[in-house]
Design brief:
It contains 16 helices and ten strands. By secondary structure, it is α/β, with parallel strands linked by helices. The longest helix is centred in the last third of the chain and has 32 residues.
Length: about 375
């Protein structure tokens, strides 16, 4: 039996990923920032939110599908942008995108990915593109136009980056951006020969160190490239006028990611956003942030049905999806859960993660007496 056969939940996939990946790579995807307060806030809210079962309801036909921006999705989530995917598995973004297309859910390609957007678009499915705004904004606009030309359906602009994140574990592990080889990280990689052979060696034999293939040409260096890249990536002078500009040049669905205030959600809608993602960046940026589900109901009220309200950060179980929907989200972004699967087994591992979430979702829907996604509402929550 393969190791995926012994994975019965997302935690099992996480453990396989932990053993397979170098510590620097694993902790980059697994941990948050500073004292991990925000990271724990996300999980604690989900753990402490309780569901009420409902009996004597016909649950012989459970339908986990829903509408996401007017098109059917087999599950109430899309794959969140995760720039580290290409280091967890060779061309990990491609593997994850294939699994998402097969499962019938949208896939979001990160700006910092190692696979060119055109290659992702060839897979089909429902590709979305995530944007970080560069200080040289015209470079970002060119990237947006490139995504449209490639056939991407939606654009997610991640706005909660500030002056960068204080992820101290990356420094301890020698896994900074750009990557600079040192003794500690070299030993770490050498202790994981399977990863070295199946990921890094394949990149090196196929053309050298991985590159950020969707960066503007000026900054499309290898991961060991110039330190100026990280600084150039952070546009710290942005405003709502930039949403207007993106709305002008992007004809598809426009989503603003990183919203934690009702007034910001309302402004996003006023400036033409089709959706907002309630997100604290998976606990990876501001370490004093509340959980996304703490603030979700207020944002749902502020948006008032004028746009889709999406939530991310912390989902590990199908029951977590039900809790997010019950609190008012239209659908969810899953990041680490499917990334653990990708790290554990490429496309097959990502597919396994989605299958696990679907099975758990079906069971939970049956228990709370909701045969369809549309029937999930606040009534399933125990309010104590």
């Amino acid at each position: 039996m393969g190791r995926l056969d012994h994975c019965y939940n997302i935690a099992d996939l996480r453990e396989v990923a932990r053993k397979r990946l170098p510590k620097g790579v694993f902790q980059y995807l697994d941990l948050g920032t500073e004292d991990m307060v925000s990271l724990e806030n996300n999980r604690r809210f989900l753990r402490e939110t309780k569901l009420l079962n409902k009996v004597l309801v016909d649950v012989s036909k459970i339908d986990t599908s829903t509408q996401i921006f007017g098109a059917r999705a087999s599950l109430p989530f899309a794959i969140a942008p995760t720039g580290i995917a290409g280091l967890t598995w060779h061309e990990g973004e491609l593997e994850l995108a294939k699994a998402a297309a097969a499962a019938g859910v949208p896939f979001t390609l990160a700006t910092g990915s190692n696979t060119a957007m055109e290659k992702i678009a060839e897979i089909g499915g429902r590709p979305w593109f995530q944007l970080y705004m560069w200080r040289e904004k015209q470079l970002s606009y060119e990237l947006v136009k490139r995504a449209h030309a490639a056939g991407f359906e939606a654009l997610i602009w991640t706005v909660d980056i500030g002056l960068g994140a204080n992820r101290e574990h990356n420094k301890r592990n020698g896994f900074n951006t750009p990557y600079k080889a040192n003794l500690k990280s070299a030993v770490d990689m050498a202790l994981h020969p399977e990863w070295m052979l199946t990921v890094m060696a394949r990149y090196l034999l196929g053309g050298g160190m991985p590159r950020h293939e969707n960066y503007p040409p000026l900054y499309r260096d290898k991961m060991t490239g110039k330190a100026s890249q990280a600084k150039a990536l952070r546009a710290d002078s942005v405003s709502w006028d930039d949403v207007n500009r993106l709305r002008d040049i992007w004809p598809g669905k426009l989503i603003i990611k990183g919203i934690m205030r009702p007034e910001d959600a309302s402004k996003a809608v006023e400036h033409g956003a089709d959706g907002v993602v309630v997100s604290n960046h998976g606990g990876r940026n501001l370490d004093s942030a509340p959980s996304t589900l703490d603030v979700l109901p207020g944002i749902v009220k502020a948006v008032d049905g004028k746009a889709s309200v999406i939530v991310d950060s912390g989902v590990r179980r199908g029951g977590d999806l039900v809790k997010c929907l019950a609190l008012g989200a239209d659908f969810v972004l899953t990041g680490r859960a499917t990334l653990y699967g990708t790290a554990a087994g490429g496309e097959a591992g990502a597919a396994k993660a989605m299958a696990i979430l679907k099975d758990e979702l079906r069971r939970t829907m049956a228990y709370v007496g909701c045969p369809t996604i549309g029937e999930i509402n606040g009534d399933v929550l125990w309010k104590g």
